[in-house]
Amino acid sequence: MKHNFGAGPCILPQEVFKQAAQAVLDFNDGLSILEISHRTTEFEAVVAEAEKLVKELLNVPAGYSVLFLQGGASLQFAMVPMNLLGEGQTASYLDTGVWASKAIKEAKMLGNVNVIASSKESNYTYIPKEYAVPSDSAYLHFTSNNTIYGTEYFEFPETAVPLVCDMSSDIMSRVFDVSKFGLIYAGAQKNIGPAGLTIVIVKDELLGKTGNKIPSMLDYKQHIANGSMYNTPPVFSIYVALLNLRWLRSKGGVAEIEKENIAKAAALYAEIDRNPLFKGTCAVEDRSRMNITFVMENPELEKPFLKLAEEHGIVGIKGHRSVGGFRASMYNALSITSVHALIEVMQIFAEKNK
Amino acid sequence: MKHNFGAGPCILPQEVFKQAAQAVLDFNDGLSILEISHRTTEFEAVVAEAEKLVKELLNVPAGYSVLFLQGGASLQFAMVPMNLLGEGQTASYLDTGVWASKAIKEAKMLGNVNVIASSKESNYTYIPKEYAVPSDSAYLHFTSNNTIYGTEYFEFPETAVPLVCDMSSDIMSRVFDVSKFGLIYAGAQKNIGPAGLTIVIVKDELLGKTGNKIPSMLDYKQHIANGSMYNTPPVFSIYVALLNLRWLRSKGGVAEIEKENIAKAAALYAEIDRNPLFKGTCAVEDRSRMNITFVMENPELEKPFLKLAEEHGIVGIKGHRSVGGFRASMYNALSITSVHALIEVMQIFAEKNK
Question: Which residues, 6+ apart, have CB-to-CB distance to B300 below 8 Å?
Fold first, then answer.
């Protein structure tokens, strides 16, 4: 058995893989999910149920639309300013890592951007808390969880301007209040489903106000008007997302999975703090529950530790080159058994290297 | 057994479904294709082989890049002018159907467009042949096969300006000379693979010349520089496309499949022309081999015919609402056995309704 700590595309529940494989062979009446039209009643029901489940699991209030799009969060970096940032307006951004700064770079190509806080000077080891949001900002953009650096917002920015958030790596991992947000987007390939799908949750009343000319595929209003079927959607990715959302509901929903995520993160951080060979890389109060970054006091031991971990079936813990060391990504589908397996290897290794 | 004549997403070979299902359960070393990182050696090999196979099967000359993108042909409708149509320039377009006119609509949002010929006045039943391409056009855009109306270009436009083609519904179905083109794009969900993937083949020297500011995800040069991995690609759709391209090579490649496609289309058109109940909708010389549109002399018989066809396992032949009647889509993976099954039902029905 493998313990998959990969950062993404990443682990999904085994039962989802089984159901997905079955649908590739026979989704409906002998036809594969890969060969049916997206205009069939059967697939329209898939999209409708997936939308309903996103709304139910996140308690999305009335007045918001849920969209299933393509292009990942990276395409949202451009779509957000195209749709929300008018000529002469300025958008505020918080810079907390590689993805946040890519969002800033793309927005700058399309309009005026004000970076109101950044933790870049410390290699993004913390979430900035002291900043003022100009009240005339078109919106405030931030990244709720920083996959590469291992930080996460546990208190969201408070502001009267529309809040826009890239939640790619922690959506569906914890309870939060959608009504505080103007727009949320997330690449599916962490806690929602496979790669090739992006979820957008947008407050309808914010749209159509900039006067920008927006190509149809980049216009949220077009996708809303067409129920995420403006053109052929990523059929299989949406179907697998539905299977995974059903699994999440069967586990008791987001509130229940959050308890597990808290327990998993607490267990691993406790070991990092206890074990003399390891140390965390981020400010304790901002430590992510999804992506746990840590290094060794003695970097020469990192290779042998990685080797031992691999021998124990642990995969995907090599750290991103921007941080080094290790990154244990612990998304919803990773069981606490896998976390304990990693902790055990850390303890065995510490014993060997006393 | 079903005979899947659906227009897309559509039939793929049964062995591709089997291999794809297996990879969902265990792609590599116990891990599902849905849970591996796109940065693994194993997946990088998938992308490299898929690219190599596209180049080999289409005989793509040096100086062209092959890209695996998202967003379908519809996103290309915007990306093409963003990347190729500079301020003050004009692009020429040929209007041969719904998709061609959508491409025109999107391009008009982004620059100057000149529609140099259209068959709209006849409900797109033929391919216009008389037109002049202004020699200062940034490019000439056309749609090689019109999925909805059932027409196909058998002679491509001759022009000195760069030729841009939406080949979504006939790429990989017939031999053609890539070197005549500046840019080719195709939604994968006909002859390449499942929905959620778009293939672009572009002549490198055409790029980077407009001075347009292009968001990274919409910039071909960014995707080329990153080997189609600027961000997380649609992993599963690329993998299934690879399986399908391997199947096509094992069949003898595009030249061999073209022979089958010619035979399949000839058989069905012969029946349409012979059978007194049916008639084709398009100019004979422009009849598509991929999407065969036909109606009944007596429209009241269409429902009972559809019912009889369904009883014989024939699915997906209801015509698009723009044309009515029937559309038999006969992509690469549809066997001649299925075509004969349809012909047989047409003959049985004619016998019953003499």
Answer: none
Model confidence band, residue B223 (pLDDT cutoffs 50, 70, 90): very high
Q: How close is the nearest chain B Cα to the Cα of A8, in Å? A: 6
Q: What is the pLDDT of residues A160-194, one digit of tens each?
A: 999 999 999 999 999 999 999 999 999 999 999 99
pLDDT at B1: 81
Q: For residues B312 and A218, what is the distance between their CA atoms, to the nearest angstrom?
A: 42
Q: Please give the C-alpha separations between residue A109 and each of A100, A103, B169, B214, in angstroms, as whole numbers.
A: 15, 10, 34, 8
The token pair that represents A149 in the structure block: 């650096």
Instruction: Give, in words, the CATH class of B253-352.
Output: alpha beta
Is some CB atom of chain A closer than 8 A to the CB atom of B4? yes
Residue A18 buriedness (CB in 10 A; 0-12 / 13-18 / 19+): middle
R_g over Cα of chain A: 21
Q: Which helix (H) or strand (E) holds B203?
A: strand B198-203
Span between the terminal Cα atoms of chain A, in Å: 29
Residues of chain A in contact with residue B8, where contact means CB-CB under 8 angstroms, are 37, 232
Q: Is A143 annotated as a binding residue?
A: no
d(CA A180, CA A174): 15
From the number of C-beta atoms within 10 Å of its C-beta (0-12, 13-18, 19+), residue A332 rates as buried
In the predicted model, what is the mean pLDDT of chain A? 97
pLDDT tens across B279-338, in order?
Answer: 999 999 999 999 999 999 999 999 999 999 999 999 999 999 999 999 999 999 999 999
Q: What is the C-alpha separation between A264 and A270, in angstroms, rounded? A: 10
Q: Which residues of A touch B78 (CB under 8 A)?
A: 215-218
Predicted confidence (pLDDT) per residue in B13-61, tens digit = 999 999 999 999 999 999 999 999 999 999 999 999 999 999 999 999 9
What is the domain partition of chain A in residue ranges? Answer: 14-250, 252-352
Average of per-residue pLDDT across B63-78: 98
Q: Quickly count: other Cβ atoms within 10 Å of residue B273's Cβ.
A: 12
Q: Rounded to whole angstroms, how far apart are CA atoms B67 and B186?
A: 11
3-state SS class at B117: strand
Other beta carbons less than 10 A from residue B319's beta carbon: 21
The per-residue pLDDT for A266 is: 98
Which of B220, B241, B313, B269 has its CA nearest to residue B4? B313
Of A54, A267, A56, A259, nearest in space to A174 by CA: A259
Res A1 pLDDT > 90: no
Both tokens of A86, joined, read 């008018």
Query: So what's the architecture of A252-352 in CATH?
Result: Alpha-Beta Complex (3.90)
Task: Give yes or no for A19 touching B (CB within 8 A).
Answer: no
ipTM of the modeled complex:
0.98
pLDDT tens readout for residues A113-152: 999 999 999 999 999 999 999 999 999 999 999 999 999 9
Task: Give which of B102, B291, B191 is closest to A231, Cα–Cα.
Answer: B102
Substitution target from B24, B235, B244, B318 for chain A, most A beta carbons within 10 A = B24
Report the alpha-carbon angle B233-B234-B239, nearest 5.
110
At A72 the three-state DSSP class reads helix
Residue A224, SS3?
helix
Which residue in this structure is represented by tokens 């058998």? B154
Q: Is B190 a catalytic residue?
A: yes
Q: pLDDT by residue (tens digit) across B118-152?
A: 999 999 999 999 999 999 999 999 999 999 999 99
Which class is domain B14-250? alpha beta
What is the DSSP code (8-state) at residue A343?
H
What amino acid is encoded at A187 in this protein?
G
